[in-house]
Design brief:
By secondary structure, this protein is mostly beta strands. It has a domain of 118 residues: Lipocalin (Beta Barrel), CATH 2.40.128. 0% of the residues lie in helices and 46% in strands. The protein is globular and about 55 Å long. It starts with 10 loop residues before the first strand and ends in a 7-residue tail after the last strand.
């Protein structure tokens, strides 16, 4: 593939540190996103090894060989690291030393990272269930079942907890809001209707994240729409045709989406109208989802390059090689630092510096 030419930017990308953090995702379709807290970053590989590292230096604090076939991104908080396995087990480790706190069988394969609050750990299973567990014990609190089409994507749609609601995107093309206490549905909304004659053409899975900003809930699905909903009622505020299975991001009145054709879009959050579309990455292989980093929109391609786009114009202004074999997940941003995990386990932290600063790589 041809190299990309950088345009003039106010910043440069500086790599703060890089470490080998295991075997990555192997040959499976996994989304092993690391979890970042105020002081540490946690990363896992498909062989079941979990690493805890210092955020500032990347120095390893502990490594735990769990023996699990870890298949989800991690959650870290409340003194625990939580993940799911291909065998459908939810597992919580102690952040202090990696020792196991609890393990619960959910009976269905897990591919999506959980959502966690003060009381609950919520997982989505590949067979269409949303399961809430007691955070401290792992005991099952409630289960919500949904219908699953004959053919589905091996999706990584993550639930979202906000207030007294759990929001989840489903393989049948719907979004549902559930009561945190009981799991009872408060509302549900179809993002798009299945169309076409074949099962493949009728795929409309919501396989990515949901984004909550104020009273608005943003969702996008495969072969369907990007949509803004009113979070309390589920009422649609706008929708527009869009196909994606990758994580989206919202910032500064914009919804950012990397579609399945390799285009990156900025949509006006009030109307859904296009603000810009960048197609320069359409020949770089499948893109990860997008994140916002210092006012830039960041995505990564199948060759392992990270790309920074101007959030205002969509111009491609910076790029940086991470790992040639691609990425294990969409990058994660916290406190102005971007963390990227390669498909073969290369974990690194990146910061934006003024262009005149000395760059080290």
């Amino acid at each position: 593939m041809p190299e990309l030419e950088d345009e003039r930017a106010e910043h440069r990308v500086q790599r703060l540190w890089a470490r080998d953090s295991g075997a990555g995702i192997g040959k499976g379709f996994l989304h092993l996103a690391p979890a970042v807290t105020s002081e540490r970053i946690y990363a896992a590989d498909h062989r079941g090894r979990v690493h805890a590292r210092e955020r500032d230096s990347g120095s390893r604090i502990w490594r735990k060989s769990t023996g699990d076939r870890i298949a989800t991104g991690l959650y870290a908080g409340f003194s625990m690291v939580v993940y799911g396995t291909r065998e459908g087990e939810a597992v919580a480790l102690d952040t202090g030393d990696g020792s196991q706190l609890w393990r619960t069988s959910l009976g269905g394969e897990l591919l999506a990272a959980p959502a966690v609050n003060e009381q609950l750990v919520v997982f989505q299973t590949l067979d269409g269930r949303v399961v809430a567990l007691e955070r401290d014990t792992g005991e099952r609190h409630w289960t919500f079942d949904s219908s699953v089409p004959i053919l589905i994507l091996r999706g990584t749609g993550e639930p979202l907890i906000a207030g007294n609601r759990v929001y989840a995107g489903l393989a049948n093309g719907k979004v549902v809001a559930l009561d945190t206490a009981s799991g009872a549905p408060v509302w549900e909304r179809r993002v798009s209707e299945p169309t076409g004659r074949s099962e493949l053409e009728r795929l409309v899975d919501v396989t990515n994240n949901l984004v909550l900003e104020g009273s608005a809930l943003y969702v996008a699905n495969y072969q369907g729409n990007a949509m803004r909903l009113e979070r309390h009622s589920g009422g649609p505020l706008w929708n527009r045709p869009m196909s994606t299975h990758a994580p989206v991001a919202a910032d500064g009145g914009r919804l950012y989406v990397a579609d399945n054709d390799g285009n990156v879009w900025a949509l006006d959050s009030r109307s859904g109208n296009d603000l810009w579309r960048q197609d320069a990455l359409s020949d770089r292989g499948g893109l990860t989802g997008v994140v916002v980093h210092g006012g830039y929109v960041v995505t990564a391609d199948s060759e392992g390059y990270l790309h920074w786009l101007d959030g205002e114009t969509g111009h491609l202004v910076m790029r940086h090689p991470h790992q040639p074999q691609g990425m294990a997940a969409t990058p994660v941003v916290r406190d102005g630092v971007l963390y990227a995990l390669g498909s073969r386990g290369w974990l690194a932290a990146y910061e934006l510096r003024e262009r005149d600063d000395q760059v080290t790589r």
